[in-house]
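Students often ask why we bother encoding 3D structure as a string. The short answer is that it lets us treat folding as translation between two languages. Here is a chain of 253 residues written in the first language.
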Amino acid sequence: MLNLKKQHFAIFLLLWVFLSSCNGIMSGIYDEPEDETTDEIVFGFNGPADATRYILKLNATSFTQWIYVDLHDKTLTVKEIPDTLSLTGKWDGRTRWELDSVRGEKYIFMRDIKVAAQEDADKWDLAIHHFDVKTNNGAVYETPYSSIDDALNHTDAIKAATFAGDEWTSHQCIVDMTYMMSWKIWFIGSYVNPVLTRWVTMDFSTPPPKYSVSNRVYALRMSDGTYAALFLDKYYDTLGQKGILTIDIKYPL
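And here it is in the second language, the structure alphabet:
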């Protein structure tokens, strides 16, 4: 009986060694989970330097940063949102953090903190804060198209459409969601483009927020008279983290 057990053990050992050695050979036969952290698109501008159609990927997960995008030179600049007054202590009379109790579209003021005005990048065309967007004296039109390929067939009509400029808002740019489950959210006053910011909306009727996307191509008219087409392909990564943006861009349009 003892010898039989030894024989069984030896056979099992040989089979284990054989199957282990075949792991690399057989691995392509069976479905295996993909590495969800792997992404062929890297953060920044993806495509040849002289490309007029490319992908821009941004990590806009932070609520306390603006990412300034220069489409002309394909450069990015990150600026922190002020949380105090400047060293001079001078206030511009409107920029502040505001804590509100949020009930759907109703905002009940609770308290505020005066802060310094946002310092913009030296050269930029649009800036992104999480899902919020502002332009550098530009304007935006929401097209009826769901792909840039379709929009490219209607560039004349798009350029002739009515474009909307940026507006000042006190209840759009979130800077702190720590107390979100109690319906309390900190906002900062800022210019945003109300049209382009619709590419992702957050519904706070019942926390946590619910997200929805427009799936529309947006035309951006810049201060120099040139146009760009923007389409938000994704607003989260493969792990579901919100604020990882993948943007399909055509510039110039």
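Translate back mentally: Confidence is low (pLDDT under 50) at residues 1-38. Keep this in mind for the problem set.
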